[in-house]
Amino acid sequence: MEHHPFAAAPADAPPLESLPVEPLLTSAFDTDPAGVYGQLRRTYGPVAPVGLMGVPVWLVLDYREVLEVLRNASLWRRDIRYWRTRAEGRLPQDWPLLAGYEVRQTMFMDDEEHLAARGTLHSALGPFQDGRTPQGWELRANVVAYADELFALLAAESGSAGYMDLAAQYTRPLLLMITTRLFGCPVELGDEMVMDLWRMLDGGPDAGPATGRALAAMTRLAAHRRAVPGDDLTSYLLLADPSLSDEQLGRELFMNAVYLNDITGNMVCNTLLEVLRGNATVRRSLSAGLIGETVNRAALANPPVANLCFRFAARDVRLGNFWIRAGDVVLPSAAAAHHDLMAIGSPLVDSTVSTRAHLGWGAGPHQCPSAARELAGQIVATAVGRVFEYFSKVELTLPPDQLPWRSGPVVRGLRLLPVRYELSRSRPVRQVPSGRVTANGVPRPDAPSRSSVHHARGLLASLRHLMFGSRKGG
Ligand code: HEM
């Protein structure tokens, strides 16, 4: 790639603000993002100026350029204070994506500060990373038990065959239970928090207040776990860095909640879709235990973090066919890069592309931490695996190209994943169990109860209501 490390942009190179830009988030983008990326690439090359909710940004489309931006952290900064438009006060105060970017946490740090924060997270996630520690083992047992609980509920409510939404009635409640458990939430980490994370990521009209609410909930949790430590991520973060204030810890939890809850949930749904629409080979590879390969395929086809976080140019630099000026914002698109990678005749690949080349976890110094990837991989594998163990038959009730996707600049996630199912006779679901519940009513796998099932039903009901009743702007 051509670099001009010390050159300033030539005077005749058009600044981002001077270029006419088309809005990225259109109904065409909702239904066919690949088509939109392709059109932009044909018009502008590997980097395109686009409007993001009224603000011009550089969208990075090609695999090679995206990788360069992700890997070169000294040139492409994460700290929002590098953003010239913001520093000059030209960003609308109510710009829907601003609230999330103003939450200062690991993702938006650079250099030593970033390394230290990442180290803290790594130590705190360590005990949960794999099944070899008691905490890791228990968390995995919890994931299995929660999934089983949801199937028991489905059988009790809807019978052994029927219709269901695998997103609203399985994946989202499952991830909510897991987040509650991993974070050590004594209070309701309810469906409203999930929806607030959506509102923030999708940049709906309520994004600002939604960010504030989710952050406040996480700060309360931080304060609680400081007073009453437990065997959970919140307490381990405090142990790894006792100097964290409740507010700082709340901000870190907030970001981790986005990934654990929303992004991991979308990875589950996107992987389920990959299998459901897949041919016999995909299904066979799943039954042969090659779930990792299926997850990689799904990450390549539909990475849940479709467009990664903004980066800001530390100095003038040429990228694609444009000069990016110091302080300009760029949006590296993993989804567009994947289309570039898979394009027939791409100079980057020969006849086959390794599915592991995907950028679903990011790349470079801000890549998803290994402990988080390990944990997320296990959750996705268990959640997806359970579906195909319990169902003898499961098929989409809509053609894949008619499935409704969320609209927004960051996440590629399904609103619904409607299926027709038949529960397997050879793998009966558990009976509705009896026992205890946690303070927030989420079923405890060690002592699940009748009231826990009631609570889970309530959770499902309200999630369904929110899923079908709400619509965020994009
Ligand atoms: C399948 C699920 C997941 C996917 C697809 C995913 C994807 C990603 C991606 C793409 C990034 C980089 C974003 C960028 O560079 O702009 C990232 C960063 C991050 N992820 Fe994950 N993630 C997942 C699960 C998790 C989980 C479960 C956790 C924590 C419990 C987590 C914690 C983080 C953190 C802390 C960062 C920021 C790292 C940094 O800036 O240094 N992720 N993740």
From TrEMBL:
Which domain of life does the UniProt lineage start with?
Bacteria
**Entries under InterPro entries matching the protein:** Cyt_P450_B, Cyt_P450_sf
Gene Ontology MF term list? heme binding; iron ion binding; monooxygenase activity; oxidoreductase activity, acting on paired donors, with incorporation or reduction of molecular oxygen
Sequence segments annotated as region (Disordered) = 430-454
User: What is the similarity comment for this entry?
Assistant: Belongs to the cytochrome P450 family.
Q: What is this protein called?
A: Cytochrome P450
Species whose genome carries this gene:
Streptomyces sporangiiformans
